[in-house]
Amino acid sequence: MTRAAVLEHPGAVSRIESLELAAPGPGEVRVRITASGVCHSDLHVRDGEWDRPGPVVLGHEGAGIVEALGPGVTGFALGQPVALSWLVPCGVCRACRSGRPWACPDSPSFRHRMLDGGTRWRRAADGAEVLTYCAIGTLAEASVVPAAAAIRIPAGVDPAAAALIGCCVATGVGAVTKTAAVPPGSSVAVLGLGGVGLSCVMGAVLAGAGPVVAIDRVPSKLEAATSVGATTTILAGPDPAPTIAALREATDGGPDFVFEAIGRRETAELAISALPTGGTAVLVGMPPFGVQAAFDIYPFVDGSRRILGSNYGFADPPVDFPRYAELHLAGRLPIDRLVDHRIALDDLEDAFEALRRGTSTRQVVVFDA
């Protein structure tokens, strides 16, 4: 039996249950989970803001150790550390064939099942199936995942940092270095300093941007942004006008790139309204379904401004995850500074409440070795 966080349906309270976990099938691996981040995307499902099927084992930002291989799986050694990708490419669609796995429209992750349409989780009492969120279900002591989701990383990476590579780091760093391809010397602003926003800050530093302005309503998050390389911080308030004025002053009239990393209408509109002529707003944060934003079209067109959407930082996990891990080991991506709380699986509902308050950067469930 394996302990896992189960959501019966969106909007329900998550429960820690002991489930039966089957052996990995063809093309699958069993991973002992060592750490799992608690992401705002998990909260969207928990609070019913995203419609997802249930019951489902939660979690999509994890790392672990390979402990069993299904038939036909090669390329892994038992004991191999891996970071898990929440988007498993189908491998055959146009996006996958062109090297854009983040754009795959037929990923099994969207069905929360394995490639064969099944699930490896069962309730012992009645044998009822339990789905696997994004096909990896990382808020569990172990999980069976498609082999394509298990990305080998070098030894020596702290499990909490390895887990964050699988979602917030790939999303934030990639938004800067891949989606926007920020040139050296560009001015960058980041709105919202959770795990994704702080990863955007790290990505801007990695890209050689400057100044790098970090904006949030929580002073401790501004301190975290400074620790990962932000050169200027702005404490935002309820009125966006002073924030925009301070941002323009800090960037000689407005930043070349603004990264919105919260997923709120208000901050998306703020990002767009803060742009100077030729500026780019990159929308990274994921809102609840149905949220819409508005902007004044004439100055947007007249100023040749741009809006980019960035899904998963355009990640190509087999290429990017090991690279981010090596950069971390070399001291160039201080991922460990994103983690403000290491918690137990039983603390998950408290972690969700901290996310609702907006006071946490990244909470990570750490499992016993």
Secondary-structure-based class equals alpha/beta
CATH homology group of the largest domain? Medium-chain alcohol dehydrogenases, catalytic domain
CATH level 3 topology of the largest domain: Quinone Oxidoreductase, Chain A, domain 1
SS summary, helix count? 10
| Mean pLDDT across residues | 95
How would you describe what is shown here?
The protein has two domains: 2-166 and 314-366, Quinone Oxidoreductase, Chain A, domain 1 (Alpha-Beta Complex), CATH 3.90.180.10; 181-309, Rossmann fold (3-Layer(aba) Sandwich), CATH 3.40.50. The chain starts with a strand and ends with a strand. Strand 12 (212-216), helix 5 and strand 13 form a beta-alpha-beta unit. The protein has helices at 40-46, 94-97, 159-179, 195-207, 219-227, 240-250, 265-273, 297-302, 317-329, 348-357; strands at 2-7, 15-21, 28-38, 56-57, 62-69, 81-84, 121-122, 129-132, 142-146, 150-152, 188-191, 212-216, 232-235, 257-260, 280-283, 306-309, 339-343, 362-366. The longest helix is centred in the middle third of the chain and has 21 residues, at 159-179. The strands form three sheets. Strands 3, 5, 6, 9, 10, 17 and 18 form a seven-stranded mixed beta sheet that branches. The chain is globular and about 60 Å long. Helix 3 (159-179) crosses helix 4 and helix 3 (159-179) crosses helix 9 (317-329). It is built from ten helices and 18 strands. It is an alpha/beta fold.
